[in-house]
Fold each of these.
Amino acid sequence: MTIALNYQDFSELFQEADKEELNLDVLDELDVTWQRQGRLGQGLDRRIQLREGISLRISKRQPGEPFLLNFAEHKRPLKWHFFLSGNMQKTFVSPAGKETCLPHSAGQYSFSGSGLTKRLIDDCTDTEPALDVVIDVQPDVLRSFVSDSSGELPQLFNHLVLPHEACYKRVGETPPMVNTILHQIIQCPYQGLTKRIYLESKATEIMALMLEEEAAVQEGEFQRATLQRDRLDRIHHAKEILLKDLKKSPTLETLADQAGMCEYSLKRDFKEVFGTTVYGYLRDRRMEKAQRLLLDGQLKVATVARAVGYDSPTSFNAAFKRKFGVSPKAYQLSVRK
């Protein structure tokens, strides 16, 4: 049975839940993570105030009792909400009473500008585990990046800040480059000041890419993905095959055969979806895993190299330095300090 909650009800259930505050970064009091379990499910909610006007939220949830969450009238910041897994539907009610339903699923994002919302309903009835990232940006921060010398927004972005009107909203497919940055945010290996600078740079990089896409949408130049669902499913299946065992590097012929497509289509469609080649994607995932293993500090560099599919330490060192600008050993020493 689905229950309807207002924000106060939701807050009370959150307070009643069996939860623990995790100190994922003891050097940063503005980085708070709650691990919780209760009627509304279980999971982790991490909120990081990067600086005045920019905040980041990372949520991992296992669903509990399905519910509808009702927010009363409020002013919204600019908000990018990226869904890496799971589904949700948001229903916006404008000050004039007009309803706009925006369904979201894995691989999509929703974007809303700053403005008024008379009512917002989050449909949290999905039964699948969810992982999502939210970036909130206040209008003054947007102006600091894109306004002219007089402090005015370009006409192209005026619709993003409407203090007394219904906020602008749109749903789209998450660009491959943005998806890569989102995973870098989730897997951030740093703490303290380095972490804050790193995450703020990633959040603003996403903001820049998404504003560029928004400008293209407004100018009518935005080209949506042309892959049909069947081809898209095959490409994502190929990606899962690559991720299943990072130590193995299947030939393109083998991977194409397992994904049920020809080698030429695999190479062409993979680059269209993920913005890089098959082996470029595999190399990036290997380097990210290597980074996590080095951060742990328990393994030697040679062991880490073998764990991510490199028999030659020299080749591993070169690949890691190309990706991160520092050798594996130097990186490991730097994070131990």
Amino acid sequence: MKRYIILLMLAWILPGCPVPSTPDTPVKAMKKSHFVTGTKYYIYVPSYHKNNRKWPVIITLHGSFGWDGPMRQAEEWQYYAEKYGFILVAPSLSSAEGILPVLWWDSKLKKDEINVLAILDEVVENYNGDPKSVMLSGFSAGGYPMYYIGLRNPQRFSMLVSRGGNSSMKIFENIELTDEARKLPIMIFWGKDDLFTKTAGWRAFRWLRQNDVSTAEMKKVKGGHLRRPEAAYLFWRRHLPKEYRIDDSQ
């Protein structure tokens, strides 16, 4: 209880996890609304994008509002989308809350699932995204919808990456894992000094391995509760087709 009160106080005092500084990009992320659901999302399309080829897609799920949001996710990722050549999507969520209880959580997770998959379909169609090369990543409280959406729809994603992501046994115990889900590559990493989500990372890893998800990996990195978008991309790059693996020096 004492720890919860301290976290609650920090949520009011601190401005949120800062977005790391990166070089400017030739274009900026665009704010859009899904044509059917009306869900808001940000999308970054590389300046050299052309429709004569397929493009890998990263969907990044934000943490708690006040600490994070879809615009911050777009700002932290857009430089890497330009550098490495992928389409970046940052949708607005209802279920991402790591500090206060979420009322009607089950219905909000389901709503986010419907909205995220609808946005993915729209992006694949409008920007020639590759439906077989889609990474789903969740930062902080974005871990909740990441596990929920990713494990329930493994055929839609080529990898899940948790960046200091929260997890919940309530979510895991209500997911019926398929053979396809058990083969989905999953990377769970957090900062060595991250007091917020270290336990959540271990919880998720143990549950996945106990349920025969042998592809699940975990890694402890230096620092605290930081965003680390490039690290997430580099974990995914190992699983990308060779034509998408742009060298770091470019």
